[in-house]
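Researcher: For the record, we're logging two predictions in this thread. I'll number them. Prediction 1 follows.
Model: Prediction 1, sequence and structure:
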Amino acid sequence: MQESASLAQHLLQSSPDALLVVDARGIIRYANATTESLFGLPAAQLVGQPLDVLIPERFRTRHGALLAGFVRAPANREMGARINDLFARRADGVEFPAGIRLSPFSYEGTDCIAVAVRDMTERRMISNALVAAREEADRANRAKSRFLAAASHDLRQPMQVIRLLNASLLRLIQADDVQRDLLQRQEQAIDSASNLLNALLDISRLESGAIEPDLTAVELAGVFAGLQREFEPSAAARGLNLQIAPTDLRLLTDRTMFVQLMQNLIGNALKYTEKGNVLVEQQLDADSLILTVVDTGIGIPEDKLARIFDEYYQVDSHAGTKRQGVGLGLAIVREVARILGFVVTVSSRQGEGTTVRVRIPRKQLLRDARQAAGSAPAVARAVPAQRCNVLLVEDNASVRAATEMFLGLEGFQTRSAAGPTEAEALIATLQPGDILITDFRFGGTVTGLDVLHHARSRHPFRVPAVLLSGDLESMLRAIREPVPDCRFLSKPVDVQVLLAALAELSAAHPP
């Protein structure tokens, strides 16, 4: 017993915290050796002193009220747990941030309070440094968002020029000319560069938090029809069978991001399937809608499954497999699913195929099958083109010249303006059957949509239009209501998609 008591006494004296015993009046009855090193006063000198001598003067009134409250309702707790700035005072008057714990006990019939005091200066410095680092990270994210908003438009402009010039050269070269093969190879390289740029900007924008989901009612049938039209030519060219099961379900989700997720899943399945099928199916269980993308492709080794959603990671499934892309498709799927609240899982057998399941909470399903408000226009169908007159509004001189050249070679009569102000006079001369092609973003506050609304307000007929943007997602989010007889395309634009959009609009609005 004597040894235990001696050990306890040594423990109290050498505690890393300053330990004091205070009575109900706030008088110090005991102080350990650590108290002297923390406060600069010998323990013996503190005994009999009011606890106020260790508290800065500006806090003493509040401390008296806190002590009285603690005596009325004693409990083992941290003092001032809800007070951000709790300070103690050394003998030389220097203050320091303090952490103080209180524990009530009774000694020889007297109510006492055990007080443990710790210097929190270092912890406060670390906390302040973390707060500063977080604020700096937030500033960096905001700067990154601003950069991406500009980059998504500006970096695509030169790609737009190259793609249009290449398409113009293809139009000029004879079908049997050797140069045509070189231009077609160049076109493939341009497509690859465009896809890489899109993927890099998409993953950066998603990870930076620059995108917030815009929840609207989305008809799956319309989305799936657009995906079928988008990927059917690619599947057919490779001898693959792409099947998307019909559905009448509707979701409350962000249409643009949902389409982006499905595009990456279907595109990835087609990319790594050499023969057979790619199937998109739906299944309902008790709490989820499960969308399944199944392929008969090369499959993924079991030890690689955990890494397939990492950025820039690609699976070498077997020797001789051609590297395709840069491995950002599933990373984009991961980020989009996280933002939309979906869960994506993958199962695969090497050499037999892969199954990707997207689990969507059932609460996001909508009951009726009415037309979804805010639905994006359907993908343009390839119809015979009528070579109409076109008014082009584009503030980038190189893009404007390349677009004029391409449209001219395709048989369109094209007039152009360098911006909304310059377009004013030309808008007044529009005739039924003319089509407006305009960039969405200009230097000021006026957008391409404003140009279109102005053109329609000037004439008794509805002016059909194509709106182009280097940041298609942001453009679609800025459009709060459906815009009839208007197609929204991304830069750098696929020239065949542009021609299809013009053909559809001209067929619907003949001169």
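Researcher: Logged. Prediction 2.
Model: Prediction 2, sequence and structure:
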Amino acid sequence: MRFFLFISCILSCIFISNSCVNPSDTPNKIQFVDEAQGTYFMVSYFGSDTLVGLNQMDSLLKTFDQTASSWEDSSVISRINRNEPDALTNADFNRIFMQSKRIWKETDGAFDITVGPLVNAWGFGFKNKSTITDMLIDSLLTLVNFDGITLKGNTVVKTDPRIQIDFNAIAQGYSVDLLGGFLESKGIENYLIDIGGEVLAKGTKPKGEPWIVGIEKPADDANAAREVKARLKITNKAIATSGNYRKFFEENGIRYAHTIDPKTGYPARHTLLSATIMSDSAAIADAYATALMVMGLDKAKAFLATKPELGAYLIFSTKDGDFETWATKNLMEMMVE
């Protein structure tokens, strides 16, 4: 599950299958809102309401779920995790796999799609939570091994059949990119897509105005009202946020967040509360945001110094319990005062 970026440009005319028409001196704003991938999705663009339909976007996302969703029993990833002999990959699976492998190398393993067995053991995947012991974690850590899986044509080869893949930290962002490509194939150049907080903004609003997105303020309670911490002006960029303050469980007075450190096998526990990444691709932003949450504040800053093409906004806690923020220069230049 990802953490929400609030879209400040949403009009009061939210709807599911109809369009919202602006005054005649500006292009029509078309907006669709629906549910997908266990969350919401929203698409806004300027143009004719005959260019795309909600059913087309729903179909595209459902088809993608049959590739990358571990919650779909018949999906490509589920069949590969079960080691079915005739489980073949496709173009989308292969692209996600290769993107993941590159980011795994760049982040020194902080991002690792072979963390699947650990995610399930902690109850953040599609299986019920296991009874966690050091012995169990040690045994599962032997399966966290990206070097142990290879893509050969349309086949995934494993050194150990117990290795399982988890695309959850990149697939939602990839689905945003996928929808963006679909809109562009229909001639739509100015649009905003938001799936559960993963955002892609292309072009501008009428009169050349940038799209505005908001970064959520961390909350102590999973059910607390959502507040905007900062707002950004973006165009032709993707934004993704990962945080540890909404999805967690508590046991014996200890809060366990959903971001699993692939090297320790335990949920990452740092002062870093959320990481927002700006990139050209929502999938890439999605994956890097997760990696930074694993790294923690100091390592995240050091990593970002080596990746000037990324923008970042980090929210972290202080010793006295307050929040502080840190941002890269390129992202600060996009903030709304």
